[in-house]
Structure formats: C-alpha cells, structure tokens
Amino acid sequence: MFTPPLDPKKNIKPKVAQLCEICHSRKALMKRPKNLQKICKLCFFCVFETEIHNTIVTNKLFQKGERIAVGASGGKDSTVLAYVLKLLNERHNYGVEIVLLSIDEGIVGYRDDSLATVKRNQVQYDLPLEIVSYRDLYNWTMDEIVACAGIRNSCTYCGVFRRQALDRGAGLLGINHVVTGHNADDMAETVLMNILRGDVARLDKSTAIITQSSGSPIKRSKPFKYSYQKEIVLYAHYKKLDYFSTECSYAPEAFRGTARELMKNLEAVRPSCIIDIIHSGESFRLKPKRVKKAPPADHIEVRSDGSVSLQRGNSFVDGNRCERCGYLSSNRICKACMLLEGLERSRAKVMIDRDVSTDGAAKLGRTLEKLTF
Amino acid sequence: MVTVQVEFLGGLDVIFNKQRQYKVTVEREDMYDVDVGYLIDYIVENMLENPKDKDVFIEHDTIRPGILTLINDTDWELEGQKEYVLEDGDVVSFTSTLHGG
C-alpha cells in the first residue's frame, strides 16, 4: 500500500483528503484560483511554468535569435518574469537573449530602493541590465514633476513618460521587443475600467497579448496575461525570490484603485472571475464604424466652441511622428512633449518663487522697502 | 498558551512598526483553543502601530481580500481558515499582493 510522505513541517502523515490532486503523493499547499484544484508545491511550480510556456508557444511570442528586454521594476511581477523567462529559455531552448531594462523615474525612497533590488537580480540571474532615467531623457525627475504639477497628476505624467522611456531604452539597446510583467489581475482590472468608463476603443485592444503600433519598431508582449497575481506572489514566496514590495510614494491612480478593490472582492467570492473577465474582454468585437462621407478637401468645420478645424491632408494616420522628438504620436506633438512644455513653463515660475523666499539680508531689505508708516 | 511566528510580508510590515517577523505568545483565558481567528484579533489589538490602519488588514471581520494568508506555507483556505488551531512553532504569514509589480 502507498504511504504518502510526511508533512514536511510536522511529523504527521497527511490525510488522504489533504493530498495534492495532481501527484496524489504530497500534501497540497495551495488551491489554484483558476480551477480550485488543490496542489503541492512541486506540482504548482510545474503547472505555473508550463502554463506560461504554453502561452508563449501558442501565441508565438518569441522567435529564435531574438533579443528581448524585460521591463524590470524590482516588483514581484517583473522579478518572477525575469526568473521564469530565463528558466524557460534554457529548458525549452527558445534561443532568445534576455536583457533587463529598468526605468528610473527619480522617486527618492521608492525607485532608488527598488532599483537596488533589480541590481541584485541582475547578479542572481546573471542577466545584463540597462537603466534609463527620466532625468536623462526628459531632464526632469518625478520628484521635480510632482513639486511642480502637484501630486494629483503624478500618475498621468509618470505613465506617459514611462511608456516612451521603455521604448527608448529598448531602442538604445537595439532591441525591438519589450516584455512586461502585466498579469491576469492587471488585465481584468483594465478591461473592467474600460467598461466602467465606456472607453470602447481601448476595450477592443486592452486584451491583446502582443501590442504593436504600425510604424513603431518596438513590440510589447505580456507572457503573464493568464497568470493570477496570487500565484505569482506564491511562486515568488516559495522560490524565495528577492523582490521589492512598497507602494509608490505618490498617490495611486484613484479609479484604478477602486476597480482593483472591486476585483479583489469579486475574486474572494468567485476566484475564476479574473480569467472570466479577460475571456469576456477578448470576445468583445467592436462594431465596425460606419465610414463617414469625407468632407471635401477645402472644407473647414466650425465647432460649437468657435474653434476651427485645420486641414491636415490625410487627417489621422496611425504611425504619425511627433514633430519635436520623432516619437510615434497620433497628433502633431506627442503627449510627452505636450506635458513637458507645460512643465517647463511652471518650472520657470517655481524658480522665481523660490528665489524670493530665501531668508537673509536681501529678504529683510525687501520687506523693509515695502513698509510704510 | 502558544508561541508562534508571525510574518508580515509584501509591504504589510509598514503598519507593524516596519518589522517583518515577530515571535508572538498568545494566551487565552477561556476554555477554547488558540486558533487563527483569535490570533488575528490579538494582532489587531496588540500589534498594529496605529489602530486606524485596521482597515488595511481587516475587512468584514476577516483578512482583507488581496492579502495572502499562509499557515506553515500552506494557504489557510486548506487549513480551515480562522478555525485552524495553532501549535507551538507554527509560522503564520500575511503577504499583501496589493501593490505595484
């Protein structure tokens, strides 16, 4: 008769009902949120890694000889991603070359600590690392931006700049494939947010595993699209991976936070809902827009607010370039350059303000000048 | 009386004096065993740095969704959640997943 091995922590035999549902020999340690299967640690490693391998193969994410950049923040998702990709690359011989790519937003007390984690990972996994900073790219750090534009808009700036920074960092390395650690929870959250906001155009694209704008040399992919956050954290925990886990010092995006809370509550009641939301998102098909009859070439539209439409030849073309920096943009000037311009104006203002408020003889002099009797 | 190790991971240590590991000895006056539910009450009453942070840890009288609870590295869902009776040397860990990745 088969006797299951002892519970590793305690010297008692596990009950039959406690055994792993895959190997039926070790004690189950976790319940998979996807299908409620109870499995042991070793079987969990096996199914977790195999599912990601299947995702990569089915969606043909990698090509042999390709160089890929892993967007590494030092957080749980990207740490596990770097670890698993290196492992799978060796196990299944994808023949890809992996490079870690980090963005330094310049947030003291947050990003400097998490970058220290990435640097440790670089040594632990023996992968090359490239760090691109906002300071080098835009001549602004996030700390300066928040001092200027206020904390409420921080995520807008950071998000727009990071997207570009990853592309530019990859460009610097001569790589045209960026892999990010977005997981199933993130994706379901985004689908939910787009539904709640009625953002149908984004809803259509938000579940794509590979995204590439026409005209852009950089392609992005998400091998963790079907991996639950809970499983990623458990994997990191059981493998004792070194990751950084502090929330960004600046206020998190309020709406996303609420959507996340909603999702977590739903998951507690029905764990499969995350994968179900993604499935729903994938199945949405946007009704093709009726093609508007193009106005004659010399037509100028006067809008209700009094503004006048400008003629721009072929109106909107995906793959336009920003006039200032040459980055991909649907408008004449890309979002990052637009934000930067706004910032430059307020930086000038802040500098003057600061100058006046210095204590000392000069300030005293100015105060005295204003006094009247 | 039971002595267990309690761990606050994934950034949860912020609300527990920035310390990740604690050795906790819990005593119960009444006739019942010290179970995880009792330990959670003990943590909320005695270990939170600021009582206002309770909502970060607890929601609807249980651990907040998004925080992973492990008893000796086993998901507490498989151990009877709050009803698991603690023994000396058990390790109970709480890991927050509610942060950026």
Q: Class by helix and strand content of chain A?
A: alpha/beta
Question: What strand order characterises the main sheet of chain B?
Answer: 2-1-7-5-6
At the fourth level of CATH, the homologous superfamily of chain B is Beta-grasp domain
Mean pLDDT of chain B: 89
Indicate the CATH topology of the domain at 48-283 in chain A. Rossmann fold
Q: What is the N-to-C succession of helices and strands of chain A?
A: EEHEHEHEHHHEHHEEHHHHH
Strand content of chain B: 25-35%
Radius of gyration of chain B: 13 Å
Helix content bin of chain A: 40-55%
Write the CATH architecture name of chain B: Roll
Question: Could you describe the largest sheet of chain B, including whether it forms a barrel?
Answer: 5 strands, mixed
Distance between the termini of chain B: 39 Å
Instruction: Label the overall shape of chain B.
Output: globular
The third-level CATH topology of chain B is Ubiquitin-like (UB roll)
Main location (chain A): cytoplasm
EC number (chain A): 2.7.7.-
Family (chain A): Belongs to the TtcA family. CTU1/NCS6/ATPBD3 subfamily.
Protein name (chain A): Cytoplasmic tRNA 2-thiolation protein 1
